[in-house]
């Protein structure tokens, strides 16, 4: 490939400035938005390349941390891309292997003295037992796709506009569509409100749940309402309560519901589920409770690879303590024979299988189904979902 040395050096300077300015106190995507606003001289191609280079380096996790930053960048570009002026400029001999499979690239790097896999994902001892460890680790070197959920009534309109705007798409199953990451759907006004951005695994998280008209459901950790919208997509005639500890988030939920043209009347409560909430619940009892629990998010780090090196192992215990407090609180409001759906976007056993065992042993719930929803082999997030019944 043709190389422009001055252009490569400029890309490297932009990358270095962004990496040096990032202090790890916020999601990198949020930082990058502000960084680009503060550096208006950067054109669209500069912004795209800076974003790419930074995210590729983050995908190495704690691997090769003793190397100079430029060397780590070259390795990450070689692993994550099939064309790279950075690699061609600094390691031209590697270009013959840059289109090889990921496994072949890793083997090639080992012949060059680079051991990548060992520290890429430093928390393998905590993984749920059904996860293919090597395949999961390698998945962090691949950017996940974008997924949307399109209600049946909107499919024709959405497909027509995507085709007209030359955005490729694949209907994966049912209402789930796969698109290239970075697709600018927000620029297509004609489909505004006709779809929801929702990962493939998330769309599968309530499969098998029986929803009946008039059933009382509580989305206990509702956040901005993604799982509530999924419930309503399956059955728009449930009696729905949504709650979160943050009023601002519930206001975002209102806006999202309005945008999706939700006709179902729903109720809201601001609740801290680590505290006694009996005085706020008015004797409520539910046919179903959905707990999309706060968690490590470790199944989504392919989208936020900066977390591979930022996450503190001790936080796993903090999350499991919080999760137990939450389920302890909500279970008492579940009717006999009622359904509890427990969901995380974590791949850690302590937050998943061990938490479900806690529900069995401490609260007498019966597991009907529960497993990791594997996304690492299909360019999506990995999650955990369990369905339990109160006897």
From TrEMBL:
The lineage of its organism: Bacteria, Pseudomonadati, Bacteroidota, Sphingobacteriia, Sphingobacteriales. One of its GO terms (molecular function) is RNA binding. InterPro entries: MeTrfase_RsmB-F_NOP2_cat, MeTrfase_RsmB-F_NOP2_dom, RCMT, SAM-dependent_MTases_sf. Belongs to the class I-like SAM-binding methyltransferase superfamily. RsmB/NOP family. It comes from Sphingobacterium phlebotomi. This is RsmB/NOP family class I SAM-dependent RNA methyltransferase. Keywords: Methyltransferase, RNA-binding, S-adenosyl-L-methionine, Transferase. S-adenosyl-L-methionine binds at residues 244, 272, 292. Residues 123-391 form the SAM-dependent MTase RsmB/NOP-type domain. It comes from the Bacteria. GO terms for biological process: RNA methylation. The active site is at residue 345.
